[in-house]
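User: Sequence in, structure out. Go.
Assistant: Echoing your sequence, followed by the structure tokens.
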Amino acid sequence: MSYLYINENGANISVEESYIKVSYKDGLIKKIPIETLDSIQIFSKANMTTPCTIECMKRGIVVAYYSKSGSYFGRLESTGHINVERQRQQCRLYNTDFSLNLGKKIISAKIHNQKVVLKRYLRNSRKTLDEEIKMLKIQEEKVWCAKSVNQIMGYEGIAARYYFQGLSQLIDKQFTFTGRNRRPPKDEFNSMISLGYSILMNEYYGKIVAYGLNPYFGFIHSDKERHPTLVSDLIEEWRAVIVDSLVMSLINGHEILKEHFAYGIDNPGIYLTTDGMKIFLNKYDKKIRTEVKYYEDESSMPFRRAMDIQIGKLVHAIEDEDITLYEPFKIR
């Protein structure tokens, strides 16, 4: 299955027989077989016809809308995957030992993956990052001794600080990155990881809904108005693996340059230009399709498929009230 990204203003999205048809202002026409399409992601002032909208809802094709800079607005989706009983069970397990143990598994995996990403980029660097690696190991161990979800997230916050401190020393010197910031992003690195997290969150949102879970009933993150906390929970183990490593590759591989960013022209902050967004989206799509070794049986599969399996495991764990059925994704 595939995702369609629309980044050009004036594009018209319609349905023609068994194809989704995209007509661009320059005369280019793209056709995608509708049965192969999972989602349409719109980052521009594009138009979608009513017949196309109806067809997407009938087929369960999610249509997501973002600003030109990548801020997420919302999504169009059908209600065909609602599973009330599964969601009732999901709610019953909130603030129980299930939540605590799920938090330990996910956050320890997140810190492990951060540690591996740092080590991978250290191979081509003269840096050592001994302190950062040490502190990540300490926080990973502390997570398993936590008595509450709040304690777990406290250790996660400390680990994140040292992790981003390490990344800031490993990126190409033409870019400046001194730590995590957002709303608005104050440097190119933060601009890209915020965009990547937003796309990843929306993608995971669709998968969670497809499995009949409620994306707003989380286990680890605190409830927030209009924020899908379960999505935030489940993307933790993927942030460094997919988004952070993607952005590091773009910068250190000189695929993205300073000229691909706009600096506080229409909005405060730093954002990708149209050309920069095209480079980023192409790289993201390539990354998410990358074959990865799945830890259980050593078989290779795309990241998207591995993400599906992880949500399926959570569903089984919820239905059986057995957290041992869920194992987070870890890289080596």
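User: And one key feature?
Assistant: Residues 97-122 form the longest helix (26 residues).
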